[in-house]
């Protein structure tokens, strides 16, 4: 996110946005809307080629492409002016006008400006999983929002962190969305279409106690039997509402509790062994306590016989 913010502060980007905003001077809102609408309506036709070429060859767009080359995680970058018109990009955008898109409205925030993060999505063009990171473009020397910058950031690198987790022969770790969609999991590659049955069990527990951020529980999972499930809220939702993610760790309950059962059996064996030892010692001392009295009795009898003689 720091990298994206840095791009939005580049003098070439700030100047490109400022120049686009100055082009509206002397125009009323209706005239501005008509100008933008005319370009937007022809955006997917050959008639838009000159406008598209002008945008992609602009200094701001060239800078964006250089930054993308230096940081391959940045899949696509789009810059708009304060009206939502595209003024620089690494690529031809789907639309010229962006202000009717939710992501743009979240960044512009009615002129206040805000950092916006989307949930994990899949980009067909780059065949990559990404998060949209949006930041406002600010006027130099002030905090006035003059435009927006949105970057699609490849997050596929987080998948190996989850995929490498090994929890016994059958255990698995998962990163899931708030609706249970699996983002990444060990022992499998996900398509962002699978739902986690483990999270469904967690969801029931969270609904009972909404403040429950982490914990563990046992649940019957279809095809997997009784599982022990540990869960924790990643903690991003407070600042980024779209990122209500959870980490889950699950393992077959018998497998998970096997070490505990082994210790319990060992303790039971040691207890029986201790009891047997105490019983044997008790029998030994009981036997040897009688012998001295027997010997004393025999000695007295011998002395009595000697005296009679």
Summarize the structure.
The protein is of the alpha+beta class and 309 residues long.
Can you describe what's shown?
The radius of gyration is 37 Å and the shape is elongated. Strand 1 and strand 2 form a beta hairpin. It has 309 residues and is α+β, with helices and mostly antiparallel strands. The strands form two sheets. Strands 1, 2, 3, 4, 5 and 6 form a six-stranded antiparallel β-sheet that branches. It has a five-stranded antiparallel β-sheet with strand order 8-7-11-10-9. It has two domains: 2-154, Beta-Lactamase; 158-258, PAS domain (Beta-Lactamase, 2-Layer Sandwich). Helices cover 43% and strands 23% of the residues.
User: What is the helical fraction, as a range of percent?
Assistant: 40-55%
What CATH architecture label of the largest domain applies? 2-Layer Sandwich
Computed over alpha carbons, the radius of gyration is 37 Å
Mean pLDDT: 78
**Stretches with pLDDT under 50, minimum 5 residues:** 260-269
Q: What is the 3D shape?
A: elongated
Give the termini separation: 116 Å
Question: What name does CATH use for the topology of the largest domain?
Answer: Beta-Lactamase
Our count of helices gives 9
Largest sheet: 6 strands, antiparallel
- Going by CATH, the homologous superfamily of the largest domain would be PAS domain
The amount of beta strand, in percent, is: 15-25%
| Secondary-structure element series | HHHHHEEHEEEEHEEHEEEH
